[in-house]
Amino acid sequence: MWYAGLDSERAGNRLFFSQVFEDYNSFGRCYQANDPTSRHLTELLADDGGVIVVDDMGHCTGMVPMGNKLIVFTTDGVWEVFGRDGIFDATQYAIRKISDEVLVSSKAYAVSSNGVVFWSSDSISILTLDPTSGNLVSQSLTDKILKNFVQSYEPSSWPYIMSANFEGSKRVGFILPNSYGNRNRLLWIDFTLGAFYKYDFITSIE
User: Fold this and answer.
1) Could you give the CA distance from residue 75 to residue 101 in angstroms, rounded to a whole number?
2) What single DSSP character describes residue 44?
3) Could you tell me which residues are beta bridge partners of residue 3?
């Protein structure tokens, strides 16, 4: 189990992971089983819990698993956490920054069968696995088509942007606000058709 997103200057850049599940108490054990101050058994075990500190991460705003990797959205970009040979354990893991893009709100990402789609400050992008390097890469879906549309949403509206989709589907939606903060527009991205389309809803305040 992973935990992050503390509203703290000192701990906002920390990712906590629990010990491997044995019972429900394991979910809260983000530390090693052996006593590190002991004279005898101090060894860190593969199934231990722990804390990962990423100095340049900023604050975590969202996390989502993708295959054998953990995607971490932060105030300083998008990161991936993964283990050696595709298996994460407390003794061997790596952290890599994927992109400088920043998620506009904690609800502005969605999982599709094509990858993880997210709304950043100037683009809607998708995270997919590079078959050559094995790393996650970010690619804009809107730079050539909807760049002006995406950038028309100013920072004051970003907290109201949220995704709407069925996990694993070929279609991802984003619910968008008007100038009053009312969510009155739905933007769909259809990967089967390779198309974007939107619906506008009538609200009580215009």
Assistant:
1) 9
2) P
3) 16
